[in-house]
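User: Structure please.
Assistant: Input sequence and predicted structure:
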Amino acid sequence: MMEKRTDPLPAIFVPYAEFFDEDMGAKVPGSISVSDEDGRWLYGCPCGCGTAGALRVAAGEKPAQSPSWLWNGSTEKPTLTPSVHHVGHWHGWLTEGVWLSC
């Protein structure tokens, strides 16, 4: 399956209790929530497929465990490095609060 290219999509933080739909899929493409269990970010795949992915992130420094992402610390305009690859669905960047396809 080829990754889907999308128009720029805003990243929106939502409470963990509101992130999943009744089938445990992400309600909103590009949405972000912080897991109550381990602090990982959960995100709705930006391609719109409804699947959720998990990211290990930290502000100020990239976590030692891999894979992991460096976060700029902003919840209004989050930026992650490196790129996010939801294999078989979407590949791109979260930059200044917007999901951008490769």
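Helices lie at 16-19.
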